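testing teh design pipeline on a random one, pls ignore if ur not involved
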């Protein structure tokens, strides 16, 4: 059996690692000098070997020439600790997609695949990654680790989340961002994937929870996931439609054109406030249209990694 061929035939989100690899490889091929050479794959200079040190990095070719022991001092010797946070509430499963694939993603699909792609890069760099998932409860937590077993466990959990047919109806972003902030003790690079749509708390309290993520000198990046055409610009056909709130169950029947302008003003005002607060708290804000590609996410990672280290 041709294993690769069978994997390619299978449902993409049931083979998340394969798809994440494809996304990352495609991204890498599009940049001139790849920074993904891997942890300790290139060295900056030699240093004299000291008795008692590991012999793993001795340059034996140089020893043959000089009869002296030197070890290679490598680039990227400082490992990164990275924690991914994913909102898995019902609004994140919008728009409804029957079969998730690279060209047809909803918010949860984009978030899951983006995290898997970032994990792929972190694995190459031998960095540690952790994951938190929240909705109306703290659904999942795993601390930062770098092992292959840990990597596979997180991929399995992400696949499970992406295929969930009965997501939680509500979001308690305020409560669980505070809890997550308390659990991440050591300085980390934190990526938060959410649509920031909730009604449980006032905006100011929600913004305060974002600020809590900055404690312990963490670097925080908010990937704000939206179907921009629908959720920001309310671009629907001007025919009578029923609009249903997937989290509260409330609905309203109307023509989209009748409220389009007022809706856009209200939503844009909230997003502007969110961007302003992120700037005040020194949180990197990245608006993401889930109908777009992953270059924005991966490029942001490269920039933030350099700042963190």
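output:
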């Amino acid at each position: 059996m041709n294993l690769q061929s069978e994997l390619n035939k299978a449902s993409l989100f049931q083979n998340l690692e394969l798809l994440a690899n494809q996304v990352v490889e495609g991204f890498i091929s599009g940049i001139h000098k790849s920074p993904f050479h891997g942890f300790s794959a290139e060295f900056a200079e030699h240093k004299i070997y000291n008795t008692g040190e590991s012999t793993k990095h001795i340059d034996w070719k140089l020893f043959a020439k000089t009869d002296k022991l030197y070890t290679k001092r490598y680039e990227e010797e400082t490992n990164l600790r990275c924690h991914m946070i994913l909102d898995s509430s019902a609004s994140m499963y919008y728009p409804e997609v029957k079969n998730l694939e690279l060209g047809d993603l909803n918010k949860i699909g984009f978030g899951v695949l983006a995290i898997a792609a970032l994990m792929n890069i972190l694995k190459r760099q031998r960095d540690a990654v952790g994951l938190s998932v929240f909705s109306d409860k703290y659904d999942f937590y795993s601390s930062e680790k770098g092992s292959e077993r840990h990597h596979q466990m997180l991929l399995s959990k992400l696949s499970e989340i992406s295929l969930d047919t009965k997501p939680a109806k509500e979001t308690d972003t305020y409560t669980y961002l505070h809890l997550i902030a308390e659990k991440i003790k050591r300085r980390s690079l934190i990526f938060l994937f959410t649509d920031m749509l909730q009604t449980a708390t006032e905006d100011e309290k929600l913004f305060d929870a974002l600020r809590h993520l900055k404690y312990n000198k963490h670097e925080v990046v908010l990937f704000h996931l939206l179907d921009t055409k629908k959720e920001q610009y309310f671009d629907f056909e001007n025919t009578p439609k029923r609009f249903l709130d997937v989290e509260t169950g409330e609905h309203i029947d109307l023509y989209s054109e009748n409220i389009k302008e007022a809706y856009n003003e209200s939503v844009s005002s909230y997003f502007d406030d969110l961007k302003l607060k992120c700037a005040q708290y020194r949180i990197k804000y990245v608006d993401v249209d889930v109908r777009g590609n992953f270059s924005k996410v991966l490029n942001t990672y490269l920039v933030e990694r350099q700042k963190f280290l």
